Amino acid sequence: MTMYFRMGDRGPPVIRMVLESKGWKELTDDDEENTCWNILWKCGRFKPSEYVSALPMQKLNHFPKSGMIARKDSLLRHLRKLKAVYGSVYNFFPVSFILPSEYTKFVHHYSEQESKCVWICKPADLSRGRKIFLMRDISELTYDSQFVIQKYLSNPHLIAGYKWDLRVYVLITSFHPLKIYVYDEGLVRFSTEKYDMDSLDNKFSHLTNSSINKLSPSLETEKEGIGAGCKWMFQRLKEYFKAQNIDDSKLWPRIENIINLTVLNLTTTVPRMDCCFELFGFDILVDDALKPWLIEVNSSPALALDGPIDVEVKTALINDITDLLDLSPLSVSHRKVVMKAPRPAVPSSAGTVSKRPPVPLSKTTSVRSSSPSAGNRMNRTDRTSSFGRAGRSSEVTSSITVAEKRSGRSLSTPPQSQSRVKEESRSKPPRQSTAATVPEATELSMNQLNIESETSAAVPCETKRAEQRPNKFRLIFPFNATTTRLSTHLDSLLLTEPTSRLIHESIRSIIGEIRTRELSLRRESELAETDTKETVDIDTLPEQDLQAADDI
């Protein structure tokens, strides 16, 4: 059975190319069943109504409220708050200030520095390296909108004299409970001119953005040590480290810690939804001590195909995303639900569901109760007042739905409505009438709902992979049995006791596990450095030292 997708106006062509090669078909506004898609992909954020109209078996490529870490100023506020609460484990981002609101604080810090440092200034809401500049003297500071100014990391690890950073792809398939995957392949992005602190105006020397360096005159020239172009794959970087006898075994786990620490606290903000996933692009800079630093997070990482490396990495990335989501074609029954039924209520916070007045069950996908108008559901910041009630309400809803399935009648509609449902069900095939009771926001599978999928009797779907290529996504959270238990406990607290201090304690316990892992990696790195410094070539030892060693 065919799978379908829809794309926004600025959707990346690679999405269409990969999905059509897997046998998917694109739906447009002109199609009669344009709401019967499996994936809806947009570069921008979705409207609340688009979340409302999606069922759990359909997937949108953004969670509501997850974009707060994608703006540079919001990310900075987010990380500074966490650092103030949880301490030095969050020492992975540079000293930064938001302008103009923190201009006075920046001037005070600037006046106290012993020597003039270099600062990098970035617009808070722009991407692709636009309007970024470096400065040493405060007299050079100019801005016409909200900016973030960061202390420039002047000691980056260089490869053949060129600056580089990492674009790490991160997939979130669920915030409740939290599941984070990292892609084991990614992009190493180079500057196209050698690193030079005496030429701060040279963007091709200091910025690694591909959109900047693809305009460089030296882009296609054979550069010493890195070759033509401005990108490598992770595999080539690892081969380079191995050839140079650089131990990178601690680098990658530390990057995973940064990702987990950055995303973890979003569980208290992002609503409880089953119809979403999120692809983030984490930009990581590595200094000369192989310490990773978080530079920024992208909620719609660039998927343009500018060369063979982009084609190889990004086509496999999209293919592995669709495989990991493990989507199934919508059955005829589900298609009728999608086409005709009113949608579930809009989640307004993590675990909160804003409900609507009761509707006959034959016309809806779940049981609902009344609530105030939905005017500002998605923008509401005070979630705690109705959180617990909504969590209990959703549990009752699931229980009612299961009871209805066992008894064969609706427990929430009046007798007149129930008789009408029975009359309608007599005129329809039983399978279709059963599909009308698909519950909202539950994780029950189609088999648990006793819904017979039309794919069972069909030929194998074209979307199955022709050859079994290993999926390069790897689960990094939860990363052990303790974090699995703590994450499950946190999710249950968010559902039942959203104002409880236990939530804070649960998050602190998870961060404690990450801190233990990070400290272990740091100690191992320090020991490795000490061993390297103390290692001596035996051929250079004096003869008396060799004799002493033999005596020992």
Task: Describe this protein with a few key phrases.
552 residues; alpha+beta; 4-stranded parallel β-sheet; 18 strands; globular
Please describe what this structure looks like.
This protein is an alpha+beta fold and 552 residues long. It has 16 helices and 18 strands. The protein has helices at 13-21, 48-52, 72-86, 103-112, 203-206, 210-213, 234-243, 251-264, 308-325, 332-340, 384-407, 415-426, 430-435, 481-496, 501-534, 543-551, and strands spanning 4-7, 25-26, 39-41, 59-60, 96-99, 119-123, 133-135, 147-151, 158-159, 162-175, 178-183, 187-190, 231-233, 278-286, 292-298, 347-349, 352-353, 473-477. Strand 14 and strand 15 form a beta hairpin.
